[in-house]
TrEMBL record:
InterPro entries: ARM-type_fold (IPR016024). This is HEAT repeat domain-containing protein. It comes from the Bacteria. It comes from Flavobacterium zepuense.
Amino acid sequence: MTDIHHYITELLKGNVLPGEPPFSLDSNFRAVDREDYLSYLPALCRFIETEKDLFKRSIARLVLERIIPDKPDLAIANCLLKGLEDPDRITRDLLLSHIEPLLLPDGTNIEPIKQCVRKGDFLERTSALKALRAAPGIEGELFLLEVLRRTDNFWDIETIAVILGDIGSVFSLPVLMARLENETMETDELIYQALEKIASRLEMPSELREQLGNPDFWKVNWQGTKESFMGFMAMVTMISGNSDNPEAEDQLGEIFREEMHVDIAPFRTYRELRLCSNDEDMFGAMVGIEESLQSRILLEVALSNAGISESRESQFEGIYFNMLNDYLFTRLRRKIRFADDDF
């Protein structure tokens, strides 16, 4: 058998020896003794970047995948991920499986993995979702949550739930909770398992775990009057470009009413409420909401300019508010198409 050092040395000279590179592989299809070949990494990356011959470049990438360390440096990591631009799907899928167990450094460009999620077929997309485990910091989690908020594919939901169970933070909780009530019990069970793993990893007290795992905790309840809800929906329909489309407004109003648990008694539907309300009341409610929002923004700007920071209590309230919003809008995305759905 050809010595691997000789094989790589010849490859870097532009000579591809016959047969597979003679590695002994581990369960992740990487060289068992890959530490012995680390000195070749910079030269391999330079070869990949400059070599014009597609076949030789592919072989060099194959060798790189086999010997890359668990924690590659930035240059090596970006060189590896650039291989995801290969037009061959099988090559990309194999590379994604090699990326999954790695720990990529800060600054790694993970856009090639994201593109595989966006444009890949089922197998490639699934492999790319799993490869996001390797992303630095919370980059992988954030993108997985973007997918989870939008996808209608229960395979996506199950795959992401398993991954978030391993790497998710507290910010995964509202999105996971919002994706419950699926058609299959298996999907919901995987979500609950992910929630429990996150809570355990974060060492949450049992009382808090029980609270966060209760769907009622996340429900947004409208605190204003039905008239103020009309004003709110008038702003929503105006922003969404549906102010001249009563039918679309009624559909939106009904969806928001259900998700925000708005009491519109004695009316049964948003349409009935709208038809029985006068324009003056609706306009007054809309102005009130707008003024409240403007006052809040002006207050935040004034505090910031004065160098006054929020108290810890206010910060926690802000985090809680943002998490409730995330829960609400994730649920809304299941019924309404948003402009950024194709992200």
